[in-house]
Amino acid sequence: MSRKDRTYIDRELIAGLVYNEEAYIKEFADASEDSFTEFKTNYRKYLLKRDETNFRKAGHKIKPVAQMLEIDEIVEEYEHAKTLLWDEKPVEKLEQSVEKIEGICNEIIRELKQIQENPSG
User: Fold this and answer.
1) What is the rounded distance in angstroms from the CA atom of residue 6 to the CA atom of residue 46?
2) What HEC string does 54-91 produce?
3) CA–CA separation, 6 vs 73, rounded Å?
4) What is the spatial distance between Cα 67 and Cα 28, in angstroms, rounded to a whole number?
5) Cα–Cα distance between 113 and 32 in angstroms, integer?
6) What 8-state DSSP symbol labels residue 8?
7) CB-CB contact of 62 with 95 (8 Å)
8) For 6, which DSSP code?
């Protein structure tokens, strides 16, 4: 099944992580929204500046959350972007990676907001 056929955020996965407590589901979704918002901003900022140190910090900060939520696309594109930096690819390639991450993060954030509004599902 392709990603287009399903959402990024599995509400039941989150519920299982927080013992199905509605307040914790909302809190987890809120904290995750903040994390993906910060990552999206820092991804753009540091990748386009070719600041590998801070880019890696941004990646290492989101990686556990993305893995916990089983959002492989975030980790895969982050790893791909590191190779773009190492290979000194043109800025157009970096911008394509930024656009891809921003699209994924925007959808994730939208889904997390829906969970915050209706944590009981």
Assistant:
1) 30
2) HHHHHHHHHHHHHHHCCCHHHHHHHHHHHHHHHCCCCH
3) 13
4) 15
5) 10
6) S
7) no
8) S
C-alpha closest to that of 94 among 52, 38, 65:
52
- Which helix (H) or strand (E) element contains residue 4? none
Q: What is the pLDDT of residues 14-52, one digit of tens each?
A: 999 999 999 999 999 999 999 999 999 999 999 999 999
Element of type H or E holding 107:
helix 91-117
Would you place residue 120 in the very low, low, confident or very high pLDDT band (cuts 50, 70, 90)? confident
Q: How far apart are CA 32 and CA 73, in angstroms?
A: 16
pLDDT of residue 4: 52
Query: Cβ(112)–Cβ(8) under 8 Å?
Result: no
Residue 76, pLDDT > 70, answer yes
Q: How many residues are there in the chain?
A: 121
Model-level pTM?
Answer: 0.93
**b/e per residue 38-62 (b: at least 16 CB within 10 A):** ebbebbbebbeeeeeeebeebbeeb
**Which residue, chain included where needed, has tokens 């000194």?**
88
